[in-house]
Amino acid sequence: MPVIRQPLSANDAFGDPVPVRYSLEEAWEKGILPWKAPTARTYLRRRSPERGIPVPEGKLDGQTVRYTEDELTTWRAAWEKQAGPTTGRPPASPESVSR
Question: Which residues pair with 71 in a beta bridge?
């Protein structure tokens, strides 16, 4: 009798790719967000709701919430449209940080 493989998720069953998800730190390292994780977390979780900016839900992975690139870029566009420039400095990039 052949072994029947059960799909891992509905996406797998239909052959749709599972979207890549990023932590806020990974999103900064990839250049998806211009802010380091602590700043992004403040903007995302505290300031966005205060300003009426929709916040992506993300998916909890252990103690880390992970977001798709689409979720983060959509939120970032709404944040920047409403908030304007957040500092007078250019955005930090991973290359400019000494480790």
Answer: none
